[in-house]
Amino acid sequence: MSEEEILWAEKYRPRRLDDIVNQKEIVERLKKFIKEKNMPHLLFAGPPGTGKTTAALALVNELYGDKYRQYFLELNASDERGIDVIRNKVKEFARTATAGDVPFKVVLLDEADNMTADAQQALRRTMELYTETTRFILACNYLSKIIDPIQSRTALFRFYPLKKEDVVNRLEYIAKNEKVEYDVKALETIYDIVQGDMRKAINTLQAASAYGKVTVETVYKVLGLAQPKEVREMMTLALQGKFMQAREKLLDLLVTHGLSGEDIIKQIHREITSSELQIPEELRVILLDYIGEVEFRIMEGADDEIQLSSLLAKLSIYGSKFLSGKA
Length: 327
Prior knowledge:
By secondary structure, the protein is α/β, with parallel strands linked by helices. 57% of the residues lie in helices and 9% in strands.
């Protein structure tokens, strides 16, 4: 994120646990730690933009008050992920005791799943040695990348994608405070694309506001995506057996819109799984199976145009078979 995006997101970051939405059980558990002024090492796991870092900041803010920065060290493990950081920077902070009501300091290791195996082993030992003076909060997207010895030393908190109403309500709140004109449909479209990632939703709203009024068109434009109707039209042509017309649409998306094969295949997947596309269930299953193959080939470096043309050919073959009643 750019510095401007970070400041904008920081401005609307919840400062207290009660401001966090869609993670009620997590908030209740963390409040008990605040009340007791004691807690174990914590492990926050879940998809991006669901409030892991925010929950950690709100926790220490309520533990220590406005001066929480004196007792709190925040590191992004994707940047500082080596064993030297654990041996030096973290140890130096962890070995000194606090003089306040809370008898420990807190270290937040964000994106801990990016830490090297050696660094995680060193961290495991550091957590043991300095548990009297320091508590560790590890935040990660992929729990499987955290070694078992660390998982066994922490209390696990699983974060889940935010609900649509929570994301849309927050975007409306931000838009009104920033005096940004918007269509409610555009905010719903942002959610449909980001799927519960609040951080990405806020950044998309900010980028779309640069065009003036935030509309569905501006949302797709800033995200570099084609509108669903264009992808749906391409697929419909292919299913009707009009392969060359569908391929012309594909080339328009690749060349004129500048979309990558990965972007297009994800939008095709979204259309296949939506109720907007009226096709038999058996055909839907067959196409989803083939879409998975094409996506894998594209991710492995195969040519976008050739792979997507192949997918359109499959749509044309199976469309004529199923939709003509011959199946």
